[in-house]
Amino acid sequence: MKRFLILISITLFVSCSTKHRDPTARTGTTNDSVLYYYTIAKDRNNPLTQRHNAVNKAFRFLKEDQKDTLYFPVLYQKSFIHFTAKEYDSLLVFNDLLIGQPSKNEDNDILARQHYLMAYYYDHIAYKPKKAFHHYNNSKNYKKRINDSSWIGKTLCNMAIIQKNHNDFFGSKETITEALHYLDAKKDSKYISSSYNVLATDHRKLLNYEEAIKYHLKAIATTESDRDRPLYQNNLAATYIDDHKYQEALTLLKEITKDSTLRRNKPEYARVLDNLAYAQWLTNKKVKEEAFLHPLDIRKKNRDRRGQIASYTHLGEYYIKRNPIKAKAYFDSVIQLSKTLNIPRAEKDALKHLMRLAPTNVALRDRYVFLQDSLYAQELKVKTQFAKYKYDDTLKQESILQLEKENAERALEVAKQRNQKIISYATLGLLVLASGFIGYFLMQRTRRIQQQNKIAVLEATYATEAALSRKLHDDFGGKLNHAMMLLQNGADSNEVLDIVEVLYNQSRNFSRKINDVDTGPHFKDLLFGMLGTYCKNTKLYVTGSKEVNWDKISGTSKKTLYKVFQELMTNMQKHSSATMVSIDFEQSKKALGVAYVDNGVGASKADIQNKNGLWNTEKRIVAINGSINFESEKGNGFKAHIKIPN
Of 10, 68, 212, 628, which cross-links 203 as Cys (Cβ 3.0–4.6 Å)? Predict the structure, then answer.
């Protein structure tokens, strides 16, 4: 924390001394005094107490003169000095004075720095990530007005870290990628390497280890900091462990332990030692308990409670088979610490291990399910909030630009006509035109979306009809023609009757397939009955169906789900040679999610695109505003992730 405070103090202070307006042509004793005290307050070589007194005197002179060009720079210095002195209540008061009247403050640089200062306060002091995200974003927007690319990139990097820390990994990837466009390779190498590290972590959490490793290596290659390099290397080793590349992890971790810089950073050194012991244990090497206890002792001495959670977790895993009682004690320590630090994900992971030790303990299972559901809901809420904030801010910035454009046009009209009446009419006309355009645009957009949905439905219908037609022609028609030929040639009646019986059964099954789906109270039985018919020689595992409230799902969504499963099961039966099919249901307030997995031969992306049935399935889902994603490779089975509205 101290390092962060020193860093932001130096960065903001030095930058401030060169960026804002520094009026020197002033007259009068009062103006000279303000400038004198303001200069003392800016000078970081002066003691903090002297700077504090100086900025207070400067502010007293300016208190009644908000139009003075130094009023807002003095307010910023006052906020900054209160922050440095840890006088956070005063910081909040003067922050409201500075950014509470943006119409009077036209200094974009001062406003950007004030918002950044408050973002840092909410991020690292008050621990209010949503407010920090808001202020970082405002700081970025003010710097955009003066084209300060480096500042914009650094601010976006901080926003991405907040999203990452709250498990919004897709949003974090998007933000950090935007940050890299603004950062300069020569001036901002520290932030570029940090950005690569964040991007690598995002990919790691999304289980995309190949990309994670690539960006970890980029972070290591671009950093010029001897302190940061072993941190990035340790992150890379952790990714190797997650990807089961234990030898690579061991080689790297052994190399890091020799780094003299790392040894001075006790919490990070303990993390390396703990990862090294864990990787050795995973490779079935004989590891003594001391290998885990030593980093735990370092973490306790440095009051690194988050690090202690990792140590206790690894010790619990270490003793699961050797000494279940000890393992339980370590996992209990994880739960206790996670509750103290309010880290429910760590508690959930510990409960997962404890359930292995006590599989009949209903209380553990219920707590695990509760945490899983609440974490999912919380993460979804946070992701939605960040996404909505960025979307709303984009609209706001577009609105500001539009307003600035209108003001410029209005000013030009004033200069040309010098007639207030004409200006009023022109402004009114612009507003009406803008409103009409927006209304027309929204109406056309709505019509276009509706038309696209109609087309999607028609295409899905046409594809289904074509498939049915081919099936009638190829299967049913061929056998019927064969029966007619046998009759004409005087064949044995039993032989003809056998073919007719096959045709009858085929027509009955065909009729069942194309008939409308019963979406009433018996839908669930109908659905699982259909699935069972495809799995006579295949094991079918279904989870989560008991928690689904089928009454909440619309009839259209039920029909679509039924047809989609028909296509997937048909594909499985005809092409995959699967021996096991797993279907997992998970229902949220707005949608039903389904994960389909089979262990068949799989298919390439080109093969999937060439399958009319699967293409038709995607059309059905899109037509009801749902989504379906296929994951498959030759020899690695077949997966489909489905989401349909309730």
Answer: 212
Residue 289 has pLDDT above 60, yes or no: yes
CA-to-CA separations, 552 to 2, 579, 592, in angstroms, rounded:
53, 33, 10
Length in residues, the chain: 646
Question: How would DSSP label each residue in 519-588?
Answer: -STTHHHHHHHHHHHH-SSSEEEEESGGG--GGGS-HHHHHHHHHHHHHHHHHIIIII--SEEEEEEEE-
Strand partners, 592: 587, 644
pTM of the model: 0.54
Q: What is the pLDDT of residues 197-232, one digit of tens each?
A: 999 999 999 999 999 999 999 999 999 999 999 999
Q: What are the residues facing 582 on neighbouring strands?
A: 541, 597
Helix (H), strand (E) at residue 208: none
d(CA 471, CA 488) in angstroms, rounded, equals 25
CA distances from 366 to 309, 363, 543 (A): 22, 5, 16
8-state DSSP, 597: E
- Given phi > 0 = left and psi -120 to 50 = alpha, else beta, which region is 322? alpha
User: How large is the average pLDDT for residues 182-195?
Assistant: 91
Q: Are 19 and 109 in contact (CB under 8 A)?
A: yes
